[in-house]
Design goal:
The structure holds 2 protein chains of 2 kinds. Chain A is of the alpha+beta class. Chain A folds into 2 domains: 51 residues; 148 residues, no CATH class. Chain A contains 3 helices and 6 strands. In chain A, strands 1, 2, 3, 4, 5 and 6 form a 6-stranded antiparallel β-sheet that branches. In chain A, a hairpin with a 4-residue loop joins β5 and β6. Chain B is mainly α. Chain B has 10 helices and no strands. In chain B, α3 runs parallel beside α6. The chains are: A alpha+beta, B mainly alpha. At the A-B interface, α1 of A face α4 of B.
Chain lengths: 215, 227
């Protein structure tokens, strides 16, 4: 068998395996995409209700949502979701799906819930890739660290205090991990700034058409 | 085709040719994730599943793969298997995926999987290949869990913390805290702690092996006298 023929057969075989492998992954992706989106949605609604309990609002959080874009304050140049909680048509709180772009291993996705009076109802980490055992204390299921944000606002503490202790602020860092807490403290502060300057606009903007797929 | 008995394959995977202790493979995930028992258990289970699936697939197609393209084909298979496992877990075991999600892509970096594909599955029938994958995986998982237990105990002063993430509500009562008010020892949790811990485990295994071989020698030496 000539070398050329040998090489051609090998290349075709390799190509076939690539096609079959990719097809398998594409097939499974197609079969699971809907379920994964539904799981994500259910999980999101659960996290939203931890921050703003169902009894504090009477609207549907999942449909009363808008997207806003502000790279400097919300951490991403992509549209960011803002869920709005209302009671008898009056604004109660906004939950901003902000991003801390400077985590130890990539972006950290947050839910920052801010009451209409500008105080924090709470913060939760939705998605992160921080080191297990070190940076993952930002996750509420791993430690209570994130609860330190409850009821804080732009003025409590003052600007200087909005940093981890190592940087002279009031928020704890973790043993062996300063970068993840620092990224979140800064991101929460920027979200508060955004809320402060865009408050009325946030609640007045009509909500997006329903049936939006959770990203 | 080599023909190997099942007890031999099982012994190879669990002890004599243990992926982590003898082949020293898969160090990246082994050292990165072994800081608690639960993390170790999660990655161990996912790795075992990947090993079984990739060994079975590689063994199934072994007749059609030419030697000169086998490595890219194995890489393709392993990457596909890991991606499929990740997607399936995300869809059907969402709670578990939320915990293990970040570890699953790490499995691709585990050389044990391609090593088993190359040295075993590509030369053996499907059933022995599945047995090999299963016990190589269990052997790897055992080392992971022991290392995780050592590091968690020294580093955090707990055992089985956050077990509820994997076992649900029952898991909350599974956490053991042997000492009150232990402040933890950071070195054990950081990467150097993983290297030190693995070193200790390998040393202990070597001592056990040496004792065993000495016993065997004694028996051999003493036999002629008895005869």
């Amino acid at each position: 068998m000539s070398l050329l023929r040998h090489m051609t057969i090998s290349a075709v075989l390799l190509g076939l395996f690539a096609i079959v492998g990719t097809a398998m992954v594409a097939l499974i992706h197609d079969a699971t995409a809907e379920r994964i989106a539904a799981n994500h949605r259910a999980f999101l609604l659960k996290s939203l209700h931890i921050l703003v309990p169902p009894e504090q609002h009477d609207n549907d959080l999942f449909t009363d949502v808008i997207t806003v874009t502000n790279k400097d304050l919300l951490g991403t140049d992509k549209p960011v979701r803002v869920y709005r909680a209302r009671r008898n048509e009056n604004p109660v709180a906004a939950i901003i799906n902000a991003v801390a772009p400077d985590g130890y291993s990539g972006s950290i996705e947050l839910l920052v819930a801010i009451r209409y009076d500008g105080t924090l109802a709470g913060v939760r980490v939705v998605k992160h890739k921080e080191t297990p055992g070190l940076g993952d204390g930002i996750d509420a299921s791993r430690s209570d660290w994130i609860l330190a944000f409850n009821n804080r606002s732009l003025t409590v503490p003052e600007k200087k205090g909005w940093a981890v202790k190592r940087d002279g602020g009031i928020f704890d860092q973790f043993t062996g991990a300063t970068i993840s807490p620092r990224a979140i403290v800064n991101a929460v502060y920027r979200s508060l700034l955004y809320f402060d300057t865009h408050k009325d606009e946030l609640f007045e903007k009509p909500s997006m058409p329903t049936e939006v797929k959770a990203s | 085709m080599t023909d190997q008995s099942y007890p031999y394959i099982i012994n190879q995977g669990l002890w004599n040719n243990n992926a982590a202790l003898v082949q020293i493979l898969g160090l990246c995930p082994l050292l990165a994730v072994s800081n608690t028992v639960i993390n170790s258990l999660g990655l161990g289970l996912a790795t075992t599943l990947t090993l079984v699936a990739s060994n079975a697939t590689v063994s199934f197609i072994r007749r059609w793969v030419r030697p000169d393209i086998r490595i890219p084909v194995f890489v393709l298979i392993i990457a596909s298997v890991v991606t499929i496992i990740e997607l399936a877990m995300n869809a059907w075991f969402h709670e578990l995926y939320l915990i293990l999600g970040i570890f699953i892509p790490l499995i691709v970096t585990n050389c044990t999987i391609i090593a088993r594909a190359e040295s075993f599955a590509s030369k053996n029938a499907i059933i022995p290949s599945i047995v090999d994958g299963l016990f190589m995986g269990i052997g790897f998982m055992a080392v992971l869990v022991i290392l995780g237990a050592m590091r968690e105990l020294v580093g955090f002063g707990t055992l089985m913390s956050h077990a509820d993430l994997m076992f649900g509500e029952i898991g909350k009562s599974m956490t053991i805290q042997p000492w009150e008010q232990y402040t933890g020892y950071l070195l054990a949790i950081l990467p150097p702690g993983a290297f030190l811990g693995l070193g200790f485990i390998i040393a202990i295994k070597n001592i056990i092996d040496k004792r065993r071989s000495r016993k065997v020698q004694k028996v051999v030496v003493s036999e002629p006298e008895m005869a």
